[in-house]
Design a protein that fits this description.
4-stranded parallel beta sheet; alpha/beta; 22 helices; disordered C terminus
Length: 684
């Protein structure tokens, strides 16, 4: 039965029709099945090829700067490209274990997965420490009827590629017992109450029990999978006086540390003590002695994953489990191969070059942050992130910002999630910055030009851009096949996010300062300048008048009868009258005028002009007409009016604005005394 029929909204009608066709005409059945299949495959091919005209496989993986994670990506890149598939990778640089605000911001990138555009989704489950995240992603993919392939930890309903960790460690322990005849065997475990460490302890105990060797808990030490705790554990072990015949370690890092500690204590490996590791890390190749260890076969896992992908969506409904055996190597640290001193010169020089490169890159990143801290605007493109990305030798780097990343309430809207729309604001291609496309696009569309990005079976990496849990955007990176700069990329990503937070903070700090300045120099009721704002600006106007020989006109204006309005009609009506006059003063003022409320019912206006008498009297008429028009449109049981006085003078070296305002104020007061509301206020 074609997949199209089973998942079509009209599937019931189709199935009923199919039943009658089968009963009455088998030939029509064949024709009908062929037509529907063609329709299905036509629809399917249009759907699956709508990114770049090629097949797309999604990969969810975290912590890409890790050695195992890079191997998974590398082998998948190689196998998928050979089979004609593009790889679309969604990655965070944390494993989400802490579940803090930063992890929440990182996790948001997985919400961008375009399930309806994928042929399959591969999840490197062990790289993400929170099972409900991987399960949610798998369920979402399955709901879109695409096969899901889990590499490492099994997921229900998915193709599960699993590694035989326990079997491999058991093989190593059996080898130590059966081939080398050891019975006093210590175990260097990882962290206490850690599922991976506990599983390896269980394998160690199982083999001992099989060979009737007593399991002694005090022979189990905890090195936390790392160097420094292992050194502490070895000091404790050696302080007991008894030297074991063998020390089985839960990973290679601890095994190499154990070898160093034994050597420092005057003991030889394997002559005095056999040591084994587990994991097959790259650094082991340069260690003397070479370790007996087991390496996870990620290459084999990638081949199996791609074989599932190539079978297409038929694999959606028949998930299977696949077991990948580790490559167990019996080498020098157990005595199975003669010790040879490894020439580590190349490795040392390589590490030295990496150290120099990382230091240089840190300096570059410091420069980026320094530039951001001194940026005059919060405009992300001014930082030229693409230029800094050039040091990573990426084929292409683009940044898509959420359309609301500078909004005041972005901390509420974008907490752990993306806005609906984004726009490209940075585009860096093949060593050059390209003018970004500024069209607003659906965030889940991910990229504006997928045809070009996927034209050569490229690997496209999607990374989150955020500060803490506040999502700012996402990065789209075209990763070369031989890319090995994931440590640099993590540094870049971390600093990038810091810069975004810095720009956001600076933007809102400047905005807050602007708002504060508005409060500082503006009147809260009318939005005109206050007395402080007036005197802040008037000096420039005086200087302009002095150099241009133009008149500076100063007005003193009082609202008529404010006390009467407040006492008779309420302070709310008094405020209405104040705002009505203020709006008129501002609306009718010539360009460059300073309009201010000095307090209560007092206003002051100043501007430069060439014909002061005519322009001043004309301004008074315009303001009075404006107030009259408003009063006619919004009738009140009281008149709104103001008294004006003005004075003018060409500023010279002896000019005093205060003296000019006093003259204008005296003239205004003479006018005000004639107003009936003023006389009424006086009687009160």
């Amino acid at each position: 039965m074609p997949y199209f029929i089973l998942n079509n909204p009209c599937s019931k009608d189709i199935l009923v029709a199919l039943f009658f066709i089968i009963v009455y005409n088998p030939i029509i059945v064949i024709v009908f099945h062929t037509v529907v299949s063609c329709l299905y495959w036509g629809v399917y091919m249009v759907e699956e090829l709508n990114i770049g005209g090629r097949h797309i496989v999604g990969l969810v993986i975290a912590h890409l700067n890790g050695e195992a994670e890079q191997k998974i990506l590398h082998y998948l890149q190689r196998e998928l490209k050979a089979s004609g598939f593009n790889l679309l990778v969604f990655s965070s640089f944390t494993d989400l274990y802490r579940r803090d605000a930063y992890d929440k911001g990182e996790e948001a990138v997985y919400s961008l997965i375009p399930y309806d555009k994928l042929d399959a989704l591969i999840i490197a489950t062990r790289t993400i420490k929170i099972g409900d995240v991987t399960m949610r992603l798998a369920n979402e993919a399955l709901s879109h009827h695409i096969p899901v392939i889990s590499i490492d930890d099994p997921l229900p309903g998915c193709h599960n590629i699993r590694f035989t960790y326990a079997n491999s460690l058991e093989t190593i322990v059996r080898h130590v017992v059966e081939h080398h005849g050891c019975r006093r065997i210590n175990f260097m475990a990882g962290m206490r109450n850690n599922e991976y460490s506990d599983a390896r302890i269980a394998s160690y105990k199982k083999v001992l029990e099989e060979h009737n060797i007593p399991v002694e808990e005090d022979r189990i030490y905890y090195g936390d999978f790392w160097q420094w705790p292992t050194q502490d554990a070895m000091r404790e072990m050696l302080s007991k006086g008894e030297v074991p015949e063998a020390i089985v370690c839960a990973n290679d890092t601890m095994a190499m540390t154990v070898c160093s500690c034994l050597e420092d204590a005057g003991l030889k490996v394997p002559e005095d003590v056999i040591v084994t590791g587990y994991d097959g890390v790259d650094a082991e190749r340069y260690h003397t002695p070479r370790l007996t260890t087991a390496a996870t076969d990620y290459e084999h896992a990638a081949k199996v994953a791609v074989s599932i992908v190539k079978k297409g969506r038929d694999m959606y409904s028949c998930p299977q489990d696949y077991l990948i055996p580790d490559n167990v190597v019996f080498s020098q640290s157990c005595g199975c191969k003669p010790k040879r001193v490894t020439n580590a010169n190349d490795r040392v020089m390589d590490l030295y070059s990496q150290m120099i490169s990382i230091n240089e890159f840190h300096e570059i990143m410091s420069n980026m942050i320094s530039k951001a801290s001194s940026a005059e605007t919060a405009d992300i493109p001014t930082i030229n992130f693409g230029r800094y990305a050039s040091f990573l030798k990426l084929k292409e780097f683009s940044f898509y910002a959420c359309d609301n990343y500078l909004d005041d309430d972005v901390t509420d809207k974008n907490s752990g999630r993306y806005s609906e729309f984004s726009r490209m604001i940075i585009n860096y291609q093949n060593g050059e910055t390209v003018d970004p496309l500024v069209e607003t696009m659906k965030t889940r569309a991910l990229m504006l030009n997928p045809e070009r990005l996927f034209s050569d079976n490229n690997t496209v990496l999607i990374l989150p851009a955020h500060f803490q849990d506040i999502v700012v955007g996402h990065m789209v990176i075209v990763v070369p096949d031989d890319f090995d700069q994931f440590t640099h990329l993590q540094i870049y990503n971390s600093n990038y996010n810091q810069v975004l937070e810095l720009l956001h903070a600076q933007y809102h700090l400047r905005k807050a300062l602007t708002d504060l300045q508005m409060v500082f120099v503006h009147d809260y009721l009318t939005s005109l300048y206050n007395r402080r704002g007036f005197y802040t600006l008037i000096d420039d106007m005086i200087a302009q008048g002095r150099t241009s020989d133009r008149y500076l006109v100063a007005f003193s204006i009082d609202l008529n009868g404010l006390k009467y309005l407040n006492d008779t009609f309420s302070h709310q009506e008094g405020d209405y009258a104040i705002k009505t006059v203020a709006e008129a003063l501002q609306a009718e003022a010539p360009p460059g005028a300073i309009c201010a409320r000095f307090g209560g019912d007092e206003f002051s206006v100043a501007f430069l002009c060439d014909s002061p008498e005519s322009e001043a009297s004309d301004y008074v008429r315009r303001v009075e007409a404006h107030v009259a028009k408003v009063s006619k449109l919004t009738p009140k049981p009281y008149p709104v009016s103001a008294s004006f006085g003005y004075a003018y003078e060409i500023p010279d070296d002896n000019f005093s604005i205060d003296a000019l305002i006093r003259t204008a104020d005296d003239r205004m007061y003479d006018k005000k005394k004639e107003h009936p509301l003023h006389r009424r206020d006086d009687r009160r």
